[in-house]
Amino acid sequence: MAKLEIHQFPCLSDNYGVLIRDPEHGATAAIDAPDAKAVAAALADKGWRLTHILTTHHHGDHTAGNLPLKAETGCTILGPRAEAAKIPGLDTPLGDGDTFRFGAHEVRVLDTPGHTAGHISYWLPADKLAFVGDTLFAIGCGRVIEGNAQMMWRSLQKLMALPSETAVYCGHEYTQANAKFALTIEPDNEALQQRAKEVARLRAAGQPTLPTRMGEELATNPFLRPHVASIQKRLGLEGKPEWQIFGEIRERKNRS
Ligand SMILES: [Fe+2]
Q: For residue 187, which phi and psi values (nearest 5 degrees)?
């Protein structure tokens, strides 16, 4: 099996587009389509022909390119079954536990609701890759817009269970602001302090901070660390259920 080629590019104000390609089969997928022109330009840069769009959720900054790209390329659009009516051009509705082949590569679908009610993530176990849309961000997580804290926490737990070496691609470059907030929740976390410095260095150099790795998130992302005693103490929620502590961190981020 040939290694997947991956091309990540910034688009809109702070979104990322990602293209993946199986060079043996010529299959090329866009993970979400924030902007048709930016995706088309990235395809032209690489000399790749689009065959699929893998949609994570219905928000416009993830789906605006669907119809124009489909008209241009005839690509097949896959996306969340629970949001089928809201995904422009959807051909293949998907839900938790579904698997499919992208070229020679197995893709598993995980329901990760909370940011939106039907949000899905794509996991490629053999490639050690996950595309998590707006569920998990580097040192952060998506706003809980259509779900509740308990639902989002369950979704994050599914992602936390992926192997720690999994490369995680997220929908937005929010890492520097996330790091600043994270340090208010867990100021004494040395791994977080180091990472915040590295993130600042990368951003100052105009470099992306993504993909991240699951292991790095487990060590530095406060939203994934409600079990940590010092965090519970800081929030005055010692011994409370993890989803509730997660919910409090999310509320504080919303107000920050
Ligand atoms: Fe979103």
A: -65, -25
Contacts 24+ apart (CB under 8 A), 65-68: 65/30, 65/33, 65/34, 65/35, 65/36, 65/37, 65/38, 65/39, 66/33, 68/36
Give the distance (Å) from ligand 1 centre to CA of residue 47.
29
Q: Count how many Cα atoms sit within 13 Å of the Cα of residue 158 in the half-sphere of its side chain.
A: 24
Kindly list the protein residues that place their beta carbon closer than 5 angstroms to ligand 1, a single-atom ion: 59, 134
pTM for this predicted structure:
0.97
What is the 8-class DSSP label of residue 172?
A: B
Q: How confident is the model at residue 151 (pLDDT cuts 50, 70, 90)?
A: very high
For the question of residue 105 being annotated catalytic, the response is no
E strands in 179-218: 212-213
pLDDT confidence of residue 2: 87
CB atoms within 10 A of CB 181: 17
Tell me the mean pLDDT in the region 23-46. 97
Cα(82)–Cα(104) distance, rounded to whole angstroms? 27
Catalytic residue (choose from 52, 62, 105, 119): 62
Q: Does residue 52 have an active-site annotation?
A: no
